[in-house]
């Protein structure tokens, strides 16, 4: 059983959860428990003309209920159902849903957590202090365990796995923010999770350069020689099969992709553009480095189409399937 957090109820989260349940047999979807406001979910189903039974639930009941109804674990906070109109009043429930999903996963009540998309601004307006989902999940994991695990974002699709070393910062800030130590830390996490969750015995990791042509021997910037290369050398000394710095413009065609299992990218768009180009409807956001499995659709809240019936559940379905697979591997290989 998987936990599915509510995401922002003003976005397409409620409807893709409903559609995923509707396709549970046709698409062989693993059972999940939605953590949310059953009234808001029912309202979205009615708006879209979906005759889907919804039952109040908990982890003990959800497995049996999933066959005939969408099981929903109720929140203490209620949602205001206004498709396409984000509401700061929903922030408390959104955060509660994440908290409860992580807790259920951490205690073993469910095997993994899958998160529906959130919008950052309503959370920021409510006082939320974290840049996004990944950083908040890292905080929850470390608070509970007393450890200092590093959460790493991976976009995983059928043909490509990409990992941005720096994430949600302005492009102009990337050269100053990128450090050798950061690349090493991310590389270690990626290598470990490829082995123990993706079941790749000897993972191969390509590391991209920051600059065009990976710096062209210093003619187009020194970061690749001074920052990226030392990180690769350290990872290799530690037994990680990493290579680079590789020019980003040559590493995403089919023959290049066959040479690695994942690629470390130096900034957000260097990783996400190729991942979404190859598999926009199938790519999954996976958080590596945590003591539990977390996946998410690779898209956002899509406020512009919320409640219109245009949303597709493909990426959520892929996220649910991958979460079940990774959780099974984690249990088997640990």
Fill in the keyword field for this structure.
Isopropylmalate Dehydrogenase, alpha/beta, single chain, 12-stranded mixed beta sheet, 334 residues
Describe the main β-sheet briefly.
Answer: 12 strands, mixed
Order of helices and strands: EHEHEHEHEHHEEHHEHEHEHEEH
Estimated radius of gyration: 20 Å
- Under CATH, the topology of the largest domain is which? Isopropylmalate Dehydrogenase
Going across the biggest sheet, name each strand in turn: 3-4-2-1-5-12-11-6-7-10-8-9
Number of H/I helices = 12
Write down the overall mean pLDDT.
95
Structural features, described:
The mean pLDDT is 95. β8 (204-208), α9 and β9 (241-246) form a beta-alpha-beta unit. The protein has 12 helices and 12 strands. The chain has helices spanning 13-22, 38-47, 59-65, 91-106, 120-125, 133-145, 174-177, 180-196, 223-237, 254-257, 268-279, 314-333, and strands spanning 2-5, 32-36, 54-56, 70-74, 112-115, 152-156, 161-164, 204-208, 241-246, 262-265, 284-288, 294-297. The two termini are 19 Å apart. The chain has a 12-stranded mixed β-sheet with strand order 3-4-2-1-5-12-11-6-7-10-8-9, with helices on both faces. The chain is of the alpha/beta class. α8 (180-196) packs across α9 (223-237). The chain is globular and about 60 Å long.
Short précis:
With 334 residues, this protein is of the alpha/beta class. Helix content is 40%, strand content 16%.
